[in-house]
UniProtKB/TrEMBL annotation:
Belongs to the CUT homeobox family. It comes from the Eukaryota. It is found in: Nucleus. Residues 269-328 bind DNA. Residues 517-526 have a biased composition (Basic and acidic residues). It comes from Equus asinus (Donkey). Residues 61-135, 237-272, 336-528 are annotated as: Disordered. Residues 142-229 form the CUT domain. Residues 75-91, 368-400, 435-452, 487-509 have a biased composition (Low complexity). Residues 267-327 form the Homeobox domain. This is Homeobox protein cut-like. The gene is CUX1.
DNA sequence: TTGCAGTCAATATC
DNA sequence: GATATTGACTGCAA
């Protein structure tokens, strides 16, 4: 049935998900005669028949369907890389190996392509071409990624970091040369890799590249060469610029311009980067804890109170949610590795198992750990929280109301899970607001609390409004505590895909001593995040459940 | 329209 | 100078 459907109503490539593309790749392979026998083990392990390398894949694909990068460029020739090693029929397995064993480097990048135009090796300086991938190879890589078996992202980054540090190679060079990413991205990637199963096709690319690079026996030398070339180029430029006024031409490629001497005048046009003051961040965090997904109205309120642009507030929430998620993952991994005999360091794998399902799960588990206690702890006790003056008293006072208002009713303490949806919170808001102002305001935000802000919106989620947030922001407080609780309740249901996991997560959720207790102080911040994350999970759950079902959720 | 993933690039920090 | 952090942006999916 699926085949029939697919053959009669194929979706355009651009609309297909990674998974959805799989059948088409298979078909293309099959058409090309590459898919020999058997099934392509997409997941890797088996050895299957086939697939040369991605590269090869690529070609076929291109011929047949893809538009065409007209330029296979010379470099194309290079592309052979990937496949070269394993020629013919290999299956994904081969891919795996490709990635895992030392095979001939895929130079996709570095060498491979660069050669093209620039290459004149020595020439210049401009070593460049930062981006390794270009047409052909890029595609190859994509294919490779598509067919790649699960990789241990954590292990890969770990190894990369080691190699880089051992050889005194910088992230910038590595990123621009091998990954085609900027230093900041590389840093982030190396420090907080996401588990393979949570990465999109695009997100996996850097990991595949890293793995390939690790497998390249000459990887270090190549980078070193690049480094040298860069240096040379830099010096050259520098000299020339010194002698001449400023010849600086924006060197086309690469790397260097970053630092070198290019003054770049026009930059003036750029708008200055917004830097949030610590108080503002705190306020936003509090707001987040109250409501990870604030309504437009709430956002607006926050923006006003903090004297920020709404877009800034929106961005902040997006970034915060996303970063918290990642941190949770990392934590989980680390915890896992510790817990688990540390044997395998492969987080991804671990994560995979651990939190196979949705992030929610994984998250839950984690959070759960600190869950209830954690949440509170942090807030109240947490370093950051503590800091806040408001926290203390205010919270206490607030506590009551908040409970209600808080979307997350469940709050650990009081309201038992029963309170299904967060809705209740709303009203509460009303009262809470009073205290709001202070915190938020500090720096720029003059308008403190707009007192009793608006009335609470109807919707649970949306419901809580600025008032609540502001309150929390301002006073900080109380809410958070709840968070932990609520979430806990919610989470379980949410994620809990696998029974096993579920169990564990539940455990943690309920703050089994071990977890919570175990955590060291430094976790506080993490706890906070986790707590917040729980909120978001809850939020999503609720959303998903769409009001009617809350009832069913038993925790 | 909203949320997210992935990045960039300006800053901050080491 | 290298690395880490983080606000903003782009593209995509639901």
């Amino acid at each position: 049935g699926s085949v029939s459907d697919m053959l009669s109503r194929p979706k355009p490539w651009s609309k297909l998900t990674q998974k959805g593309r799989e059948p088409f790749i298979r078909m293309q392979l099959w058409l090309n005669g590459e898919l020999g026998q058997g099934v392509l083990p997409v997941q890797g392990q088996q050895q299957g028949p086939v697939l040369h390398s991605v590269t090869s894949l690529q070609d076929p694909l291109q011929q047949g369907c893809v538009s065409s990068e007209s330029t296979p460029k010379t470099s194309a020739s290079c592309s052979p890389a990937p496949e070269s090693p394993m020629s013919s029929s290999e299956s994904v397995k081969s891919l795996t190996e490709l990635v895992q064993q030392p095979c001939p480097p895929i130079e996709t990048s570095k060498d491979g392509k660069p050669p093209e135009p620039s290459d004149p090796p020595a020439s210049d300086s401009q070593p460049t071409t930062p981006l390794p991938l270009s047409g052909h190879s890029a595609l190859s890589i994509q294919e490779l990624v598509a067919m790649s078996p699960e990789l241990d992202t954590y292990g890969i980054t770990k190894r990369v970091k080691e190699v880089l540090t051992d050889n005194n190679l910088g992230q910038r060079l590595f990123g621009e040369t091998i990954l085609g990413l900027t230093q900041g991205s590389v840093s982030d990637l190396l420090a907080r890799p996401k588990p393979w199963h949570k990465l999109s096709l695009k997100g996996r690319e850097p990991f595949v590249r890293m793995q390939l690079w690790l497998n390249d026996p000459n990887n270090v030398e190549k980078l070193m060469d690049m480094k040298r070339m860069e240096k040379k180029a830099y010096m050259k430029r520098r000299h020339s610029s010194v002698s001449d006024s400023q010849p600086c031409e924006p060197p086309s490629v690469g790397i260097d311009y970053s630092q070198g001497a290019s003054p770049q005048p026009q930059h003036q046009l750029k708008k200055p980067r917004v830097v949030l003051a610590p108080e503002e961040k705190e306020a936003l965090k509090r707001a987040y804890q109250q409501k990870p997904y604030p309504s437009p109205k709430t956002i607006e309120e926050l923006a006003t109170q903090l004297n920020l642009k709404t877009s800034t507030v929106i961005n902040w929430f997006h970034n915060y949610r996303s970063r918290i998620r990642r941190e949770l993952f990392i934590e989980e991994i680390q915890a896992g590795s510790q817990g688990q005999a540390g044997a395998s360091d492969s987080p991804s794998a671990r994560s995979g198992r651990a939190a196979p399902g949705s992030e929610g799960d994984s998250c839950d588990g984690v959070e759960a750990a600190e869950g209830p206690g954690a949440a509170d702890a942090e807030e109240s006790g947490g370093p950051a929280a503590a800091a806040k003056s408001q926290g203390g008293p205010a919270e206490a006072a607030a506590a009551p109301e908040e409970q209600e208002e808080a979307p997350r009713p469940a709050e650990k303490a009081q309201p038992p899970p029963t309170s299904g949806p967060p809705a209740a919170a709303d009203d509460a808001d009303g009262e809470g607001r009073a205290r709001a102002a202070p915190a938020a305001t500090r720096p720029r935000a003059p308008r403190t609390a707009r007192g009793p802000c608006q009335t609470p919106p109807p919707r649970p989620a949306a419901g809580e409004d600025a008032a609540t947030l502001s309150r929390s922001a301002a006073g900080g407080g109380p809410c958070r505590a709840r968070d932990g609780a609520d979430r806990s309740s919610a989470l379980p249901s949410t994620s809990a895909p696998a029974a096993a996991r579920r169990a564990s997560s539940l455990q943690s959720l309920f703050g089994l001593p071990e977890a919570a207790g175990a955590r060291d102080s430094r976790d506080n911040p993490l706890r906070k995040k986790k707590a917040a994350n729980l909120n978001s999970i809850i939020h999503r759950l609720e959303k998903a459940a769409s009001r009617e079902e809350p009832i069913e959720w038993e925790f």
